[in-house]
Amino acid sequence: MAVDLKKLNQTQLNDLISKAESRKQELEKEKLVKVREKVTKLLKDEGFTFEEVFGTRGAGRRTRRSTGKVPPKYSNPDDPSQTWSGRGKRPRWFNAALKAGKKEKDLLIK
Q: 3, 17, 46, 73: most buried by Cβ count inside 10 Å?
């Protein structure tokens, strides 16, 4: 089934590429099903469950770790109610203080 690519026009090439990508995805899904079947059979033969081997979260699934609230590290000397933990984008008051000649260590909460 050799296809002479030089004889195909733009539309035919795009159609061929689309069909090839679709077939590639089908083959990957088929391979994934076969691998799952092999893993399930192996686990069953060895007397284990998926959860015992990989944990309750499942393989490949990652959850975003919550770090919780971080205590403030810096405060605005002009308005102590304005604080910043040192994470994320710098607040305007912090940048203004640095431009005014203060150093980061001057803004630390003591």
A: 73
